[in-house]
Amino acid sequence: MIAFLALAAAAAMQPEFCGQTPYGTGAGQTKPFICSRAQEDGGPSLNWPSKKATFKINTKGTEDIPSESDLDAGVSANLEFTTVRQGFSTWTALSCTDFQFTDGGLTASERVGFDFRRLDENENIVIFQNSWAHDPLVIGLTTATFNSQTGEIFDADIELNDEQYDFTNKNTNVQTDLLNTVVHEVGHFLGFDHTDKPGSTLPVACASTATMSKTSTLGETQKRELATTDQLGMCFVYPTGKPIQHCNPPSTTPAPPPIIRQIGSSLEDGCAQTSPATVWPLALLAVVHMLRRRRL
Fold first, then answer.
1. Which end of the chain is more exposed for a tag (fewer CB within 10 A), N or C?
2. CATH of the domain at 263
3. 31 Cβ partners below 8 Å, 6+ apart?
4. Running DSSP on this structure, what letter comes out for residue 52?
């Protein structure tokens, strides 16, 4: 995933107090980020069981972003794949985390969700959907399968709405910026929730300027970079040289079945809700409780 714009090192502009007392990760401080929870009304926070995860990109890509031909090498590079990989590397470029994403290459799989009958066939995929089955306002949607007692994620898939939105990867004539969208969705992939979700106690100035803010406007590129609050979240949950930390500890009660749930959806504007699931728009955001296939 790797290497492309040196964006991850710089924090998006936020008020200075967003990363200071009382909004920090120390004792008695309010965390300036929000972790997704196993249940809408509580439960353990979500995280990967170890500081590593593999992702693959579906081969069909998008026609919105032209390929770049390398005539000397005789190959054609799919620039959208490069941008998707950059979205993952943005989160791991921080020195305070040693989480590692492995780029598993391309896949023909279009399966979103987890198939408990074919364990060896499950993959964490990123897929451009040119036939969108969700709310048309949603730009991207992340679906995670996790243990509802421990909050441990064991599968996550990102869908990108290639039917209603025109993705771009340039700094001019920006439409729906692909990197802006993917960086946000990877935050959900890692277990983070919207900073400005209903009930959030974070100051509006911090919540609305975070990478994990639930709204995005046409042409926005701010979420290409991690804001201070998002950096603090990554470094708190997946700290370098230390065990994974929990925003909310695992449950000690008997475990119910695993849950497949949409934990991130993105929209251009505002929030949308569907029943029984709740989808928060953000250019990607949402923490929905939606059992896609009841393979529990």
1. C
2. 3.40.390.10
3. 23, 24, 25, 232, 233, 236, 247
4. E
Count of alpha carbons within 13 angstroms of residue 268, beta-carbon side = 13
Pair of tokens at residue 218: 């046409």
In the structure encoding, which two tokens stand for residue 193, read together? 């929730």
CB 87 within 8 A of CB 182: yes
Q: Is the dihedral of CA 171, 174, 178, 184 positive or negative?
A: positive
**Tally of domains in the chain:** 1
Do the domain assignments include residue 119? yes
Domain for residue 276, yes or no?
no
State which residues form the domain around 129: 46-267
The two structure tokens encoding residue 164: 């209603």
Residue type, 111: R
Answer whether residue 277 is part of any domain: no
Query: Under DSSP, is residue 55 helix (H, G, I), strand (E, B) or coil?
Result: strand
CA atoms within 13 A on the CB side of 34: 29
Whether 118 has a pLDDT exceeding 80, the answer reads yes
pTM beyond 0.90: no
Closest CA to 87 of 37, 138, 16, 160: 160
* 3-class SS of residue 236: helix
Strand partners of residue 143:
157, 262
Q: Helix, strand, or coil here: 276?
A: coil
In a domain, 144, yes or no: yes
- Contact call for residues 115 and 121 (beta carbons, < 8 A): yes
N- to C-terminal Cα separation, the chain: 32
Give residue-wise pLDDT tens across range 257-269: 655 555 655 544 3
Paired tokens of 212: 């994990």
